[in-house]
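Figure-free illustration: sequence to structure, shown twice.
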Amino acid sequence: MADNTTLTQKSRAEQTTPESTWGGTYFTPRVDIFETADELTLLADLPGVRSEDLDLRYENGELLLHGKVAPRHSGAQMWLNEYEVGDFYRAFSINESIDSSRISAACKNGVLTVHLPKTERAKPKQIAVKAT
């Protein structure tokens, strides 16, 4: 299931530049994905996103992540404004060997953790070798 090719990382500037889509500003969250024998685990940095403002869906072989960020300091006079407000959006193609009925997720301290369990047929099987 795992493709061992090395993925090229985006430069820091590419990852923090907002993208204008659907009439709003969307950021691409930084993500780590790792694999064990039983599952894939996705960790996404979503600063300012509350768990109730997350929309996480699995549709047609894609995992769609959309986190909404509420505007900060509305009505206040800003002296310095380095924090851009915008939503987060990311989509991932998911292999059919993931058991979509058992996907689970939790968000704590701005980090989303998604567990993508493998189906039984996708898990590695140990084969016993008998001496003859």
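We now fold a second protein in the same way, so the two outputs can be compared directly.
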Amino acid sequence: MTLDDLKQYELVYLATPYTLYYMGLDQAYTDACRLTSDLMVRGIRSFSPIAQGHGLSVEAGVSPGAVSLWYWFNQGYMNKCDALVVGCLHGWLESKGVQHEIAEFLKQRKPRYLLDPLTRTVTKMVDS
């Protein structure tokens, strides 16, 4: 499967690790932006809570640790998005936020995909 296959969706939600990212919050933001822009230039509309929320966190002083606030904020986007794409950056399996997003899309019975950040290959997640 390729990134082009994601064009079938009006809007995808890009989940990436953030709070405990091994290179820090600023690098988590940069890496999320790189994946988001890569999707954009390939004609795939996406929402990245990290690309959107990092600036809010920094400029408005909203703590990255305010989990219930971020879950509430992102829920509306999860409801609107047609599919989930997990950017498999270092630590995505351990990320509580990413795991929450995967569970939410599974609950909503929406398609979920894994995106390799190096090869840009896409793999469909199977229901377990």
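Summary for the second example: The chain has a mean pLDDT of 94.
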